[in-house]
Design goal:
The structure is a single chain. By secondary structure, this protein is mainly α. The chain has one domain: ABC transporter involved in vitamin B12 uptake, BtuC (Orthogonal Bundle). Helices cover 73% and strands 4% of the residues. The chain contains 15 helices and 4 strands. The strands form 2 sheets. Strands 1-4 form a two-stranded antiparallel ribbon. Strands 2-3 form a two-stranded antiparallel sheet. Strand 2 and strand 3 form a beta hairpin. Helix 14 packs antiparallel against helix 15. The protein is globular.
């Protein structure tokens, strides 16, 4: 691959090109595909994955990984459902779930930094712990019947003709905007990229490793819990079996959006684009109707392999021509 091609065909630009081509192709094939209703439904259905992918992106940028995302989202959902069912005001239940998710992530970050245990092992343990607590708390799905929560589930921004942008979609868009600001305009975001790029160099430059590592894992825990909130708003229930495989989908979406698994590169908008690409594939398959749900996994797997290969090609240095 030439130097010019390397500069242009970055993973994020490639994802954007693929996204546009799929939109054009699906719009030409399916009637009403290019409509505001389909776009609103896509955002709402992608809210859980999108919010989880934001937290995963910060961790991956810093050179780490978080496998507890899906389990922590499920735990947050049953915690909210159980508290609301016990008479706790919905706003307080949501706040407690977010605080609990943040604390959970902070604890994993402390374990990783101070005990020097690989993030894969610590977050794998966190995944089993969170999933076990969720199953112990609520072996079955818990419906949320509080009138205020029902109102929240149906709330949104009206777009006319009986169409609206639901609250889960608004949560996703707000989280993406805020996370993009944190990633580019705060020390935490810049330090996470510095640590992921070269930890020793970052340490020599005075980057606070402890505060940054604790910060990104706390942020991932917060996003996981917020994904659980989005799930309860989307389904009006809490489910201890929700989010199985969510952590892998979040990592895959981030990678497709241009976030390198080795750390140090990638953006929040890029990860969001990866989430939208996954949602677009699912929506197109739903319109097709004749293909099973397994084809979504096939398409995601092929995309992931494609973008991992592209990242590898971009990381290879061009060979200088031999002198005669």
């Amino acid at each position: 691959m030439s130097a010019g091609a390397r500069r242009f065909w970055t993973p994020s630009r490639t994802a954007l090109v693929v996204f546009v081509l799929l939109v054009v192709a699906a719009g030409a094939r399916y009637e009403h595909f290019l409509s505001a209703r389909v776009a609103a439904n896509l955002l709402a259905s992608a809210a859980v994955l999108g919010i989880a992918a934001i937290g995963a992106t910060f961790v991956i940028q810093s050179g780490g990984i978080d496998l507890s995302v899906g389990a922590l989202a499920a735990l947050a959902s049953v915690a909210i459902a159980g508290q609301v069912g016990a008479g706790v005001p919905p706003a307080l239940a949501i706040a407690l779930a977010l605080a609990g998710g943040t604390s959970f992530g902070l604890g994993m970050g402390w374990w990783i930094h101070h005990l020097h245990v690989p993030p894969f092992i610590v977050t794998l343990g966190g995944m089993f712990l969170a999933r076990g607590l969720a199953l112990w708390t609520a072996p079955e799905s818990i419906p949320i019947e509080h009138p205020h929560y029902r109102w929240l589930s149906s709330a949104g921004i009206p777009l006319g003709d009986g169409l609206g942008l639901p609250l889960p979609a608004l949560l996703l868009l707000g989280a993406v905007a805020l996370a993009a600001w944190v990633s580019t305009q705060t020390r935490l975001g810049r330090n996470a990229l510095a640590i992921g790029g070269d930890e020793e160099a970052a340490l020599l430059l005075g980057v606070p490793l402890r505060a940054t590592r604790l910060g990104v894992y706390a942020l991932s825990g917060l996003c996981s819990a917020l994904a659980g909130v989005a799930f309860t708003l989307y389904s009006s229930s809490g489910d201890s079996t929700a989010g199985v495989g969510l952590e892998l989908e979040a990592i895959a979406a981030a990678v497709v959006g241009g976030v390198s698994l080795s750390g140090g590169t990638g953006t929040i908008p890029g990860a969001f684009l990866g989430v939208l690409l996954f949602g677009l594939i699912q929506t197109a398959l739903d319109f097709e109707g004749t293909l099973g749900s397994g084809w979504t996994r096939v398409a995601i797997g092929l995309l992931l392999l494609l973008f991992l290969g592209l990242q590898r090609l971009l990381s290879l240095r061009p060979v200088a021509p031999a002198r005669r």
